[in-house]
Design goal:
The chain is mainly alpha-helical and 282 residues long. The protein contains 12 helices and 2 strands. The chain starts with a helix and ends with a helix. It comes from Nocardioides perillae.
Length: 282
């Protein structure tokens, strides 16, 4: 029985990171408000602003050249760049960023729950209008150049979305049961005699597995940024890493809290016999 209890304690420790991940995914990945709240503050990040301003400048220059001619478009390049950075530095960008990410999350939800996927895009079309209106004012044009092209920033290819859907379905299928299974296994482990030793084993192993979860999530950012950022995400690897870190910050926090709680339980369980012996001696 002691061996079985120890094995169950180790199984419960192995299940804990999976239960945390499933609960986090259900709370964050499928919740538009939680997602937008996570990535919304990135609108103030200089790397995000620089990346968006660069793309915005390119689109605006194309529109100016198409409407006013390549000579005027070339002469207005500096003004276009300044206008783009001014718009990205304004409150309008923060609003557009949140709205675009809310729409992106709707695309992601459709891709995860559907049968096929299209590429995921971050639509910042209103910013093009802002830049062209600024150019019309600065260049004293009678009207802003007509907009023929929107500003969709590709976040993930259809293939990336398909892979995400497969992983999501596994997590989604297991998420309701994992916390219950984890709790049941832990209770079964503590039923036989010698519960203190079993609790020490479960707590120590849980500290290790939760720290491994934290490390895995942290390392996953590098892999995700290199894979998606270099292949699909037009804003580049640095912004892809920033988005990943913000989205997964809750999971990393849960892993830290769980490891701290497990460490406290470990210390209390390890010291409990000493206290009893000391009180008996007294």
């Amino acid at each position: 029985m002691r061996l079985l209890a120890t094995l169950l304690a180790l199984v419960s420790a192995a299940l804990l990171p999976l239960a945390l991940t499933a609960a986090w995914a259900e709370r964050t990945v499928t919740d538009t408000t939680a997602y937008v709240d996570a990535v919304g503050p990135l609108a103030d990040d200089p790397a995000v602003r620089d990346a968006v301003a660069t793309r915005l400048t390119g689109v605006a220059e194309e529109q100016v050249a198409a409407s006013l001619g390549p000579v005027v478009g070339s002469a207005a390049a500096d003004v276009t760049s300044r206008a783009s950075r001014a718009v990205v530095g304004s409150d309008a960008f923060a609003r557009a960023w949140r709205d675009a990410n809310a729409e992106l999350h709707a695309q992601l939800t459709t891709a995860l729950e559907g049968e096929r996927s299209d590429e995921l895009v971050l639509r910042l079309d209103p910013l093009v209008d802002e830049v062209l209106a600024t150019l019309a004012r600065d260049l004293r044009l009678p009207a802003p150049p007509e907009v023929d092209a929107p500003l969709p920033l590709r976040v993930a290819s259809a293939q990336d979305a398909d892979r995400a859907r497969e992983a999501y379905r596994l997590v989604d299928a297991a998420s309701p049961a994992l916390p219950v299974v984890w709790a049941a296994v832990l209770v079964l482990a503590l039923l036989p005699r010698g519960r203190r030793a079993t609790l020490v084993t479960a707590a120590a192993a849980s500290v290790v597995t939760c720290l491994l979860l934290w490390l895995a999530v942290r390392a996953g950012g590098t892999v995700a940024a290199e894979e998606v950022g270099s292949r699909s995400f037009v804003l580049g690897e640095q912004v892809a890493r920033l988005v990943y870190d913000e989205v997964t910050s809750g999971l990393r926090a849960w892993a830290v809290v769980a490891s701290v709680v497990a460490a406290v339980v470990l210390v209390l369980a390890a010291l409990a016999p000493r206290r009893r012996r000391r009180s008996a001696r007294g």
